[in-house]
């Protein structure tokens, strides 16, 4: 009985620690969601700017809502996503604080840079999507409009607010997550699952895989796919360069252990 209670005590302590970290993470997410909902009109105005610029100044264009609840529900979704983005550094820190006690000192030193790099790369991908991809994509889509003198009936874009913001969030998530490629590849090299030589020899396969990923997670137009593929492939090459140094250090450390 004493041995069973000895084994049970650490398990209960781990569960209590997990509960505490989850509560902290959810509280941060909830606070971020409330803050984003309070500023939802300003966030909406920020996200709508690329489309307004694509329409042109003084265009008098509009977004539409086809139900009474559509704008409210859209603001709620926007707040939930925004709350997670806002609280992600703290949420990631809670995950690290839960895992860190079970890691060796050198393992904590290895993991910490990845926890810093991941949100920074996500923000870089989101910024690339907002400031570079979306303006070009929206200009491309708006170019299919047909004024009255070119067609029997004019063809005018009147996007729904929910569909537009869902598309914006899809693109931002796609680029933010795709920019995690160096983190994933260098981590696999760091633990010995992947070798730099394999990545270098597999460039042709990487092109096919990255093109497929770009086609799946972006809107169904060739422009968005190409605009995602180009930085993804650049990040793949960057992963090879960083991976060489990571692999060299890993091999040197393994030689010291076996010496």
Distance between the termini: 45 Å
Report the count of strand segments.
Answer: 0
Helix/strand order: HHHHHHHHH
Which spans have pLDDT < 50 for at least 5 consecutive residues? 1-5
Helix-and-strand structural type: mainly alpha
* Shape by Cα distribution: flat
Number of helices: 9
What value does the Rg take, in angstroms? 24 Å
Classify the beta-strand content into a percent band.
under 5%
Work out the helicity level.
over 70%
Sheet bearing the most strands, described? none
Mean pLDDT: 84
Explained architecture:
80% of the residues lie in helices and 0% in strands. It has helices at 2-38, 40-55, 70-99, 105-142, 161-178, 181-190, 196-201, 203-217, 222-258. The longest helix is centred in the middle third of the chain and has 38 residues, at 105-142. Helix 3 (70-99) runs antiparallel to helix 4 (105-142), helix 4 (105-142) crosses helix 5 (161-178) and helix 8 crosses helix 9. With 259 residues, the protein is an all-alpha fold. It has 9 helices and no strands. The chain is flat and about 80 Å long.
């Amino acid at each position: 009985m004493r041995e069973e209670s000895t084994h049970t005590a650490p398990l209960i302590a781990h569960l209590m620690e997990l509960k505490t970290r989850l509560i902290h993470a959810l509280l941060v997410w909830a606070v971020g969601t409330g803050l984003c909902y309070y500023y939802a009109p300003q966030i909406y105005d920020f996200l709508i700017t690329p489309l307004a610029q694509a329409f042109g100044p003084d265009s008098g264009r509009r977004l539409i809502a086809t139900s009474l609840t559509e704008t409210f529900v859209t603001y709620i979704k926007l707040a939930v996503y925004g709350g997670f983005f806002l609280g992600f550094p703290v949420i990631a820190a809670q995950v690290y604080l839960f895992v860190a006690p079970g890691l060796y000192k050198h393992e904590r030193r290895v993991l910490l840079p990845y926890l810093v790099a991941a949100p920074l790369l996500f923000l870089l991908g989101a910024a690339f999507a907002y400031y570079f991809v979306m303006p070009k994509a929206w200009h491309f889509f708006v170019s299919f409009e047909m004024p009255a003198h070119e067609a029997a009936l004019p063809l005018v874009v009147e996007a729904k607010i929910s569909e537009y913001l869902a598309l914006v969030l899809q693109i931002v998530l796609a680029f933010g997550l795709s920019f995690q490629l160096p983190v994933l590849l260098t981590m696999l090299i760091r633990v010995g699952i992947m070798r730099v030589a394999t990545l270098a020899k597999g460039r042709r396969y990487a092109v096919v895989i990255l093109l497929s990923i770009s086609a799946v997670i972006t809107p169904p137009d060739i422009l968005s796919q190409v605009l995602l593929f180009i930085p993804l492939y650049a990040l793949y090459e960057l992963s090879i360069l960083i991976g060489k140094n990571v692999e060299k250090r890993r091999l040197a450390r393994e030689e010291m252990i076996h010496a």
